[in-house]
Every structure is written in C-alpha cells, then in structure tokens.
Design a protein that fits this description.
The chain has 153 residues and is an alpha+beta fold. Helices cover 16% and strands 36% of the residues. The two termini are 31 Å apart.
Amino acid sequence: MPTTTNWDISYPLGTEAAAIHDIVQETAESVELALNEITAKIDWTPLTLINGYSAYTGSGGYYNGLRASKNGNTIRVNGIVKNPTTGDPKTTIAVLPVALRPMFSVYQPVTTGNAAGSIVIGNVAIGSNGNITYQNGATDPTFVAFNFTIAIN
C-alpha cells in the first residue's frame, strides 16, 4: 500500500489553515494504518501462472502476479500479469484452487494494455473448473490487470 504524503506547506501567521492541514494529515495517516492492518489480515492464495504468463514487473501499488482470497461465498482475484505472446492470447492464465471456484462459468472485466500505450477494458472467463482464460481486450496485450469479486456458489 502506498504511503501517505506529508505535505510541507507554509501558511500565513495567524491563520487556521495550518491546523486544518495537520488534522487532514493525521486523518489520512490513521486511515492508511487501518487499511494496512486490514490488508495484512487477508488470506491471499498466490495463483500459479501457466502457458507462459508471468508476473508483470513495473512500478506501482499493485500485486505483481495473481492471487485470490475467499470471504464467505465470494472470492476476490487481484494482480497483474504479463502476456507471453503477441497475437491472440486466448489461453488459460491460471487455475483457481478447488475451494475458490465458481459453480458456473462467469466473465469478469480486466484492464489490458499494450506496448503502443492503449489501455482497453477486456474480459476473462472463469470456468467452474477453475480456469481463468483471457477472452478479449487490447490488441497484442502486454499486461492483464485483475481486480474483481465473484460468487462461488
């Protein structure tokens, strides 16, 4: 999780603006601390990438690779992966463990992008067999970013 920025801002003497800045900063840091504690408690299962897909390496506050977590009757899938080929990438990216599979096949939106800089919303199919398969998105995608929740029964 990114760290809150501490802005060093000068204010005219005798104004209340500095006090407001301090209150906003304290609130932001408090919220960030709470989010970090909650995120640390999530039981993420790293997913094994197959068919040449690999963890996307780059900067940013995202998970490199692919992971899933279960909460009641839903699972959350999160991460970013690199596409191994050019052309039609309609191959299975990863397989969900049995306990994290939906009863029926579902389609979920993903963010895709390519070397030309195009960012396109695409889709992946998540089968009842656990296969997560790229369906459509950017032409010759270099990455596929996941962040969705699905029901498992």
